[in-house]
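User: Hey, quick favor. My workstation is busy. Could you predict this chain's structure for me?
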Amino acid sequence: MISELHPHRALGVLVGAALTAWCFVFTVALLWRGLTQPIDLPAVGLYVTATLFFGLGSLFAYWTYSCLTLKYFLDRNGLTIHWGDIRQLIPMDRIEKLVPGRELPAPKVTGVSWLGHHVGHGLVEGLGDTIFYSTHGSQEELLYIVTAEHTYAISVTDDVQFAEELQGHQKLGQVVSLPQVNERHSVAALPLWNDPLALLLAFAAAVGFAVTLGYVFHQYPGLPESIPFPFSSQGFGDKEELLSIPITGLGILAVSLVLGFLLHALDRAVGYLLFLSGLGAQIVLLSAAIITLNQ
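Assistant: No problem, here it is.
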């Protein structure tokens, strides 16, 4: 028999949703401000800031989804904690004792932590480093699960009932021996997150695009309405055509990052190649902009 336990998640989800909405609203406001002001270098700052807030909003959205899905499964084999795409397996034979949170001082959690949602690590007096998967508002709502390797903190509505259920499952005996591990699934399991080189190449491609955009926007206000284009058959053209360089760069960056992100899981070399191609394209486009504006 499997016991499924749900901590109180409403407050954590509401706070997370508010943080997510704030980031996305601020992203739209920054983009609108950038699109409605003259083409100049300050506009690039608005676009870069908007991108950062969009990324932060995406993280808050994922963390809020993870809070919504937080639950604990208890059976004769052990305790499984579900948080988003992460599964924390705690075998029954590794559990040494349970410690109610009311018996210890209030912990400080570092990681994904806001009102009603705490996932990360915290130093607990008497227990040491502790892994938190909880929605507690005070230490009275916490229950610490102590094993030889790690200590975990969860939120339960009734710690006495939880202890009784745990003892009942322990008496049944384990059917299979589980490893005490942190399993990742779906997006969280992609090898890209543990590949510093791939992340560095992807970041370098993004920076290359930002440099190209910044250079074009910096030069744009002082240009005459008609400028020479060495790569054009007509020789001259409207200066607005210069904007096709960063627009092309944005399209190439998006394609290289998306395909690199997806194909890296199948073959790292292909992912590296796509990220490098995105970076190389930005260098070529920047060179084209420099040649055009300095002839």
